[in-house]
Specification:
- α3 packs across α4 and α4 runs parallel beside α9.
- The protein has a single domain, classed as 3-Layer(aba) Sandwich (Rossmann fold), CATH 3.40.50.
- Helix content is about 25%, strand content about 20%.
- The chain is α/β, with parallel strands linked by helices.
- A hairpin with a 2-residue loop joins β15 and β16.
- Keywords: Signal.
- Belongs to the peptidase S10 family.
- This is Serine carboxypeptidase-like 19.
- GO terms for molecular function: acyltransferase activity, transferring groups other than amino-acyl groups; serine-type carboxypeptidase activity.
Length: about 375
């Protein structure tokens, strides 16, 4: 089952921001200074550029955006593409968390998370496209980047703008465990070579949908591995998951009772017309030039690439949750109440299966006097 978030897991942007603020604390202050505006190569197949303007967005970007590639397999030439947005808090705090975002699928670009879920940009769906022009981008103030440095990573290889230089196809053979290994390599290399200034910041791994299998495995990989002498230690503090795929024994059986409870009718369906805009935008030549995309590597960008030769060999992530929690790492699992792909009923069931003591009973959660969850 391919699980790409066909609509945002939680459409209430302000609720997502508040959830993040509740989990991530802040303190001392320091200033952030951006690097050069031109693309810079750091060797080993890694490169980056600071992007100050994006096609479709009026004026300079009101936040610091960096894009680039990190090579995670030099033999096959696997290069993962990323979007990095520094915390927008001013003055910045030197302990603003570093959050790695992985969109589900597998094969869905992290750009989907940037513009449709937790990032500071969104498409102007209300006014649409005028006369066939490039889709317009708007600033979205309800973003996790208000208080966190966020990396949106196109993973696994073949997703979004990530690619393998090995055109024989071997580099594109991937799967759950391979993706986890590549993500771990990306994090260590990105922090060591490109952003050593963020090594001490609290690190969180986040994602949604199919990433419910990947994120806990990445987190546990960080928690249990000993870095090589030349590699940096990662300051992992926890992980966040939205409507996560976790275990088919819980996820799939919950769909029928969920549909029964919801009483699904046609006018309750989400509007999906806005999702075509990301395809038009990302395949525009001026957009690719602005992002620093390597020419000829990804002929046609897809929001979700389901043709990746991907092996799904993590059948359940429950054991990772149990191990991480017993080690004292914090976690936040949130669910939108209208997601039938990964219903909250199944998520509640696997959480109960961990058999942890309940220290705070379930109760309504209010925001400004309104029920928020």
């Amino acid at each position: 089952m391919n699980l790409c978030t066909e609509q945002p897991a939680v459409t209430r942007g302000q609720l997502l921001l508040l959830l993040l603020l509740l989990l991530l604390a802040s303190s001392p202050l320091c200033s952030r200074v951006s690097t050069s505006a031109r693309a810079r190569s750091n060797g080993g197949g890694s490169s980056r550029r600071v992007v100050r303007h994006l096609p479709g967005f009026d004026g300079p970007l009101p936040f610091e955006l960096e894009t680039g590639y990190v090579e995670v397999d030099h033999i096959a030439g696997v290069r993962l593409f990323y979007y990095f947005i520094r915390s927008e808090r001013r003055p910045a705090a030197d302990d603003d968390p570093l959050l790695l975002w992985l969109t589900g699928g597998p094969g869905c670009s992290a750009f989907s998370g940037l513009v449709y879920e937790v990032g500071p940009l969104t498409f102007d769906v209300l006014h649409g496209r005028q006369g066939g022009e490039l889709p317009r981008l708007l600033y979205k103030p309800e973003s996790w980047t208000k208080r966190a440095n966020v990396i949106f990573l196109d993973s696994p290889v073949g997703t979004g703008f990530s690619y393998a230089a090995d055109d024989g196809g071997a580099g594109f053979r991937t799967g759950d465990t391979v993706a986890v290994r590549h993500i771990l390599a990306f994090l260590r290399k990105w922090l060591q070579e490109l952003h050593p200034d963020l090594l001490s910041n609290p690190l969180y791994i986040a994602g949604d949908s199919y990433s419910g299998l990947i994120v806990p495995a990445v987190a546990l990989g960080i928690a249990t591995s000993s870095p090589e002498p030349h590699q940096p230690s990662l300051n992992l503090k926890g992980y966040l998951l939205g409507n996560p795929v976790t275990d088919d024994n819980f996820d799939t059986p919950s769909k029928i009772p969920f549909a029964h409870r919801m009483g699904l009718i046609s006018d309750e369906l989400y509007k999906t017309t806005g999702y075509t805009m990301s395809i038009i935008w990302a395949n525009n030549d001026t957009v690719r030039e602005a992002l620093g995309i390597h020419q000829g590597t990804v002929p046609s960008w897809q929001r979700c690439n389901f043709d990746i030769p991907y092996t799904r060999d993590i059948k359940s992530s429950i054991r990772y949750h149990l191990d991480l929690t017993t080690r004292g790492y914090r976690s936040l699992i949130y669910s939108g109440d209208h997601d039938m792909g990964i219903p909250f009923i199944g998520t509640q069931a696997w959480i109960r299966s961990l058999n942890f003591s309940v220290v705070d009973e379930w109760r309504p959660w209010f925001v400004d006097g309104q029920v928020g969850g």
